[in-house]
TrEMBL record:
Protein name stated in the entry: RNA polymerase sigma factor (TIGR02999 family)
Keyword field: Sigma factor, Transcription, Transcription regulation
PANTHER family tied to this protein: RNA POLYMERASE ECF-TYPE SIGMA FACTO, SIMILAR TO RNA POLYMERASE SIGMA-E FACTOR
Domain RNA polymerase sigma-70 ECF-like HTH: 10-176
InterPro entries assigned: HTH_Sigma70_ECF-like, RNA_pol_sigma-70-like, RNA_pol_sigma-70_dom, RNA_pol_sigma70_ECF-like, RNA_pol_sigma_r3/r4-like, WH-like_DNA-bd_sf
Organism: Dokdonella fugitiva
BP GO terms, sorted: DNA-templated transcription initiation
One Gene Ontology term of the molecular function aspect: sigma factor activity
Length: 177
C-alpha cells in the first residue's frame, strides 16, 4: 500500500533507470576490493543486479529508499556469490590486496575469504541487532548516506549513526577475532 497516494509507486525498472549511474559507482567501489582478478566490470555487476530484480514479477517500490534497501541486499548477495566463485578456484583465486578509501569509515576486504567472513559477521550482527545490520547493508552495500539510511528504516539520523558505530565495531571485532 502506498502511504502517499499523490506519489505513485514505481517499478524497479523505473527507479533503476533513474539511479543507474549511482549503482554503477557503488558497484565499482565494491569491486575494488576484489581487484582485477574478479574480471567483472561494474556495468556487468549492475546489469546482473537488474536481471535479478527484473526476474521478480511485479516488483514495485513505494519510494526510492525501499529500492535501495532491496538493492543493498541483492548487491551483498552478488558480491558473496562472486567471492565464493573466486574462492573455489585453485590456490584461492587471483585476489589482490586493495585498500578502499572513502570519506567515511569502510571495511577493507582483501580476499574472497574476507567477503565470506563479512557475510557471516553480518549474519551474527543481525542476530544481535537486526536494525544495525540493515544500517550496514544500506550504507555499505547500497552506498546510502546516514540520512537516507535512517529514512529507509524510519529512524532518526542519530539512531542510524549510533547503529553504524556499533555495527562497525561489532564487525571489526568479528573479522579480527
Amino acid at each position: 500500500m502506498n502511504p502517499n497516494p499523490s506519489v505513485p509507486a514505481q517499478s524497479a525498472q523505473e527507479i533503476f533507470a533513474e539511479v543507474y549511474a549511482r549503482l554503477k559507482a557503488m558497484a565499482a567501489h565494491h569491486l575494488a576490493a576484489v581487484g582485477p582478478a574478479a574480471r567483472v566490470d561494474p556495468t556487468v555487476l549492475v546489469h546482473e543486479l537488474f536481471l535479478r530484480m527484473d526476474a521478480q514479477d511485479g516488483l514495485v517500490f513505494e519510494h526510492p529508499a525501499q529500492f535501495f534497501s532491496y538493492a543493498a541486499q541483492a548487491m551483498r548477495h552478488l558480491l558473496l556469490d562472486l567471492a565464493r566463485s573466486h574462492r573455489s578456484q585453485r590456490a584461492g583465486g587471483l585476489w589482490q590486496h586493495v585498500t578502499l578509501t572513502a570519506n567515511n569509515e569502510t571495511l577493507v576486504l582483501e580476499s574472497a575469504d574476507q567477503v565470506i567472513a563479512l557475510d557471516r559477521a553480518l549474519e551474527s550482527l543481525a542476530e544481535v541487532d537486526a536494525r544495525a545490520a540493515r544500517v550496514i547493508e544500506l550504507r555499505y552495500f547500497a552506498g546510502l548516506t546516514s540520512e537516507r539510511a535512517a529514512e529507509a528504516l524510519g529512524i532518526s539520523k542519530r539512531t542510524a549513526d549510533r547503529d553504524w558505530t556499533f555495527a562497525l565495531a561489532f564487525l571489526k571485532s568479528e573479522l579480527d577475532g
